[in-house]
Amino acid sequence: MQKYDALIVGGGHNGLVTACYLQRAGLNVVVVEKNGWVGGAATSRELTPGFLYSNCSYVCSLFRPEIMRDLELPKHGLQVIAYEGGAVFTRDGDYLASYRDHDSHRREFARYSKRDAEAYERYARDVTRQCRFIQPLLMRTAPDPFGFRPRDLSEFLYLAKKFGEFSPHEMAETLRFWTMSISDFLDEYFETDVIKAYLALSGIIGTALGPMSPGTAYVLLHHYMGEVDGSVGAWGYARGGMGAVTQALARSFEAVGGTIRTDAEVSKILTRGGRTTGVVLANGDEIRADLVVSNADVKRTFLKLVDEDALPGDFVHRVKHFKMRGSSGKVNIALDSLPEFPALPEGSSCLRGDMHFTDSIERMERAYDDWKDGRWSADPFLDMVIPTTLDPTMASPGKHFMSCFVQYCPPKVEGRDWTDADRDAFAETVIGQIADYSPGFRDRIVHMEVRTPREIENEVGLTEGNIFQGELTFDQLLFNRPVPGYAQYRSPIHGLYMCGSSTHPGGGVMGAPGRNAAAEILRDLKRTPEQMSKAHDVI
Amino acid sequence: MTSFDAIVIGAGHNGLAAAARLAKGGRKVLVLEAAHAPGGATRGHEFAPGFRSAGLAHLVNRLDADVARDIGLDLSGEGTLLPTTVLDGSGKAITLHGAYGESIAGISAEEEAAFVALRKKLIFQAGILKRFLRRPPPQIGAISLGDLSTFAAAGFGLIRKGRSEGRDFLRMLLMNVADVSDEYLSDDRLKGLLAFDATLGIHLGPRSPTSLLGLYYRLTGEVAGKTGGQFVPSGGMASVAPAFVRAAEKAGVTIRCGTPVGRILADRGRTSGVVTRDGTEITAPIVVSAIHPQTTFLSLVDPAESGTGFVRSVKNVRSYGNVAKLDLALDRIPTFEGLPIESRHGRIVLVRSMEQVERAFNPAKYGEFSSDPVMEVTLPSLADPSLAPAGGCTLSALVQYAPYRLKAGWETGKPAFLKIILETLERHAPGIGTSVVAANLMTPVDIEAEYNLPGGHWHHGELQADQLLINRPTSAASGYTTPIEGLYLASAGAHPGGGISGLPGWNAARHILSAARL
Amino acid sequence: MNAMTKSAAELRRAARDHILAPRLETPFHDRLMALSEVNDWYNWAGYKAPHSLFDSELEYFAIRSTAALFDISPMVKYRIAGPDAERYLNRLTLRDVMKLGVNRVHYTAWCDDHGHVLDDGTLFRLGAQEFRLCCQERHLPWLLDSAFGFTVDIREETEEIAGLALQGPTSYAVLRDAGFADVEKLKPFDIAAFPHEGSDVTISRTGFTGDLGYELFVQRAKALSLWDRLWAAGQPHAIRAIGYGALNQTRIEAGFIVANADFVTAEGSLRALRVRMPDEIGLDWLVDPDKPNFNGRRAILDARRNQTLKHILVGLEIEGNIPAEHAIVYHRKKHEAGLVTAAIWSPTAKRNIAIASLERPYGSKFTDDLWVEIYAMRELKYQKMMKRAKIVPRPFVKLARRTATPPGLT
């Protein structure tokens, strides 16, 4: 029987990141993946001939540059291209564009309000200030307030020192910021609906909260902390689709001798005497390993793969109550020509960025009310991108791949499972919204893939289709993620670790959970990683 | 003319508590009240011939024992804790007896055990928070020894209970009440009650993150040493204001009613007194504003005397009321279906489920009222027969959600909302409609006008995480002191917040006195 | 349909095409374009502005020897008017606006509640109830929020108003020959309106060069004819158009500071330690503790009383002739004391001068034994040198002709 030093359950981006670091530290590592390909929610798949789909995650910004560098991802093919702009289309036939050029951006806002145009400066500064505080936390293990170990204490001291660099006024502002809704926060700066709607979208993407829910200002930060080559808050496309990220990771892993086994679904994580010994695959094969690291979400890992008897009761209780309700869906579309948006000037850079149709916070919040009632939003919020406007590798010239991220979309429809008819009706809602702003849109569609939380769970394995492997609310952040007392990537079972987005600092194609998990594992093994960069300096 | 050491603006219970404490500290204190009688939101009024309402509040559930003892408040009746009955329209009531359900009637033993466990946990956690209520919020950059000892005591309190309780505290602190209830309870009515209690008077739904804070806040209150208890003083709620007045007067405070303040005198960062609306100047080195912080800084202090940033932050205080107050004059005592007769003098909450509360909240976000509102009801004339003519009865209801900024305007909204409320009451107490002699619905707009409360918000500002402690009402004025030397805040808009606790006023006065000793 | 009857939404839609020209052209652009020999443009707050037009060094001599025209249209301009305008500005800014007469200008600055400088600028009193505030950064939300409780109207008019600085020893002669009668009566910081093409041009005796000079403001539509009028009259007086490079040299000689170059504005700073109080950037003289309350008053006076001011801005004279821009300042060659924010070799003073921000007590208590470490790039190699620096008063160049009234012709 094969035996490895470490086995990674699931070949998502975090699992691969952990695998790379461990293999590079001299361990013999195997990644087992249930699908016929690795990538988890960061994949590029040719679902119809001639079109490559980023069918789950679709944009890249959060992925930590430290990891790209440590794991030599550029050498293995990763290239990220920054967005050029973005737009929210308004119901009156106009739009609000976002431009990279500072003064154009201001003049665009000034079309709606001179005050808002000038207020944006202070807003951007205040958000960046908060980012500066939070960013260093991403690449560190969250200290345990009740750990009482020297390491936890020194980590708290470090955080206190960071916080101490703020003025008293800023500290008070930070406490406010963390607990505010993005809607209330924006009300303090802006007066124009569409401007607020545009800025609020980062506060809700991927979350089961509406823009009026407290805590969404923090979620905004979560999306704002990314960067494209030092340009903070910027977003980009991975050339070749999001699969390019995980393909580069896989190549990097294999280049240092790692083993990947696809079509190998883990059905059980084996434990004996409070210690893991390996896994059993769905086909009955057993793979032995001293360490098992689960890239699967915390529910799947501990409620499906591990025997409940092997776990403390209160831990299981907490995992059961870990919130990871899916809130989004995805409609991926192959187009035989570039859609037209008559509102935009010809050749507008907005097409080469993110586009939206929700022009007020109220519409966003009402979309959330539908979700609370167990329905997909009748007037959903869309984050729509056409990566092929910048990436020639995903479709042949003139053809386009369009990704529509849709919010809100519940894990169950009014308490029952999704049906195919539901899925089609959901897709029609989305296509209808786009077609309202883009005449002839339907005729351009060559192929379409519709993914509700059901499809996302079935293919990617994300419980309830939650893209962050767990909601980003206070009770599930930092030392509470995923379970208080088990927020440092270790589990109650010796040798079994977590490295997915269910752990700190959470979801998005960031890689930080995987990297931090590797750091903790290597610490337990008393090994020093060959190359693990410290967090880059904060801007 | 007599000169005063301190002028207190507003003779609400917080103003009177502050005045009494200052007077007991040897200061000569003048209280100026705009209305013709003291009491603020506890001030009663006749709303129909022969029928009186005792004011906004219809129960006492957080009167601070230290405050009461210290200022010599003589308010009796604390011995009788009132029950809370939840009616969902099915006729099957559940009644919480003792202090917030020490025992419960109407639910399964299993559910009662679950509630006991949750109650115990919440009371423990609220107890940690309570330590911070009786003192000014810690000032960042100038943490005092007292602050440190409060933190240390809170930390020790957590550690003593063991790691898992400590961890649970940090996990739950900013959660929503819905997820917590769902984890522990299964009875919809009980969950509905917790949802209602956590959000009453707050612009949050039970599923909004941080909504558990509202419940914690309730459980930081106590009556006769019992956390979560509620009572109506003997003589009814109408006896609350006079008790505060007596305490203040006994301490030597001068109270002048019918004397609205027009302006707070300030020059280059220092106050020197006030000018009443009739033009009389009254000087004093200390001015304590026990009225809404926004009235204080946006109307009474010349904005030129405050900084732009400060004015901006005061304007940003979210203070739009969500609750309507209904007073009904009835020609007989109503019969609520399923309400045990021995519980009818208590609090009656009309709620079916948490979802109902959440759905009632939805329209409030968009400036609409709920067509299926949730409410708590009391029958005040049972405790104070003088409120109604013989044989008659008064009913007081706090109805949620009724947004201050109603899109359609309250002029047309009010009759429509009243109709909905009366229909709701009719469903629970068939026949009540025919017994209505008069109805007086106060929307937040009416509450604003009647009690000079901007936004009609009884907490003088949303009681939400971002407007608490060092950010209440705003960071530059969070420790009762303000950017204007000599001017202090002492209303519910200051730490710790609203409800008849007397704490904001009392804390403010103690802070003023201790600062003077330094 | 004319503009007056267009709805706000239509006007908004009509403005969409701004993106086709991301760099705005100033009202004088046609003339600048025609004169630009070197096509050396830079981005000034979204406007295409000349860094130089023919030769930066020679442009400098136009300012100091003849007359120089510099386009200041991109300066941010706010019109503040109304019965409370004076009281409003008195609360907003540091100096006493009650002492600013009609048709007078003063240099001032404004702070947030914490006494940190938001910006500096010039305040023009155009009437009893009418002012213009000119500055580098944008402040509309701050100005509007400050208006709570005041009857005052605030309008951003940057694009509508064209501005020109006419600076140099022959600048008066140019104006006189251009037909601006009685312009010689203007004392420094005086303003007067003069007819131009059926409209008015506002001329103030102000400038950013420390030389004799004027600033002219006119409606956008009259900009080019004003330029032509000055240009024609200026020919005998050797008038030249200049870019920012030359102007910057003269402003350093005059000891003036520039927001976000010599200090970071309170709204622009990401780091708590970067903000500055007036006393920390040499603007203590603007603070008037005796006038009615103003933004930042308490914080500034507290900092003075408690001696918690952290920085100080000084003028330095540095040995040698290598400009020390962005050099680190040391005390006794080893303790880091601060940073040079602007530096040039002054052609007029023949001194190597600099403006530096030092961390107290350097510059306040320890004023001797200061050094700057200059890295001079010389043919792809840094030449590192430690030069002695001496704190000297600003301005570094003081010219009698700047203030002489009536002004001289040469």
UniProtKB/TrEMBL annotation, chain A:
Positions of the Amine oxidase domain: 15-522
InterPro entries: Amino_oxidase, FAD/NAD-bd_sf
Pfam family, one: Amino_oxidase
GO MF entries: oxidoreductase activity
Top-rank lineage group of the source organism: Bacteria
Summary of the function given for this chain in its UniProt record: Probable oxidoreductase that may play a role as regulator of mitochondrial function.
Subunit structure: Interacts with COX5B; this interaction may contribute to localize PYROXD2 to the inner face of the inner mitochondrial membrane.
Entry protein name: Pyridine nucleotide-disulfide oxidoreductase domain-containing protein 2
Organism: Shinella kummerowiae
TrEMBL record, chain B:
Residues covered by the Amine oxidase domain: 200-334
Domain of life per record: Bacteria
One protein family per Pfam: Amino_oxidase
GO MF terms, alphabetically ordered: oxidoreductase activity
Self-association and partners: Interacts with COX5B; this interaction may contribute to localize PYROXD2 to the inner face of the inner mitochondrial membrane.
Role description: Probable oxidoreductase that may play a role as regulator of mitochondrial function.
Annotated protein name in UniProt: Pyridine nucleotide-disulfide oxidoreductase domain-containing protein 2
Source organism of the structure: Shinella kummerowiae
TrEMBL record, chain C:
Domain GCVT N-terminal: 38-290
Binding site for substrate: 215
Keyword Transferase applies: yes
One Pfam family matching this protein: GCV_T
InterPro entries: GcvT/YgfZ/DmdA, GcvT/YgfZ_C, GcvT_C, GCVT_N, TrmE/GcvT-like
A molecular function GO annotation: transferase activity
Tagged with keyword Transferase: yes
Domain Aminomethyltransferase C-terminal: 313-398
Coiled coil ranges: none
Keyword terms: Transferase
Name of the protein this chain belongs to: Aminomethyl transferase family protein
Organism: Shinella kummerowiae
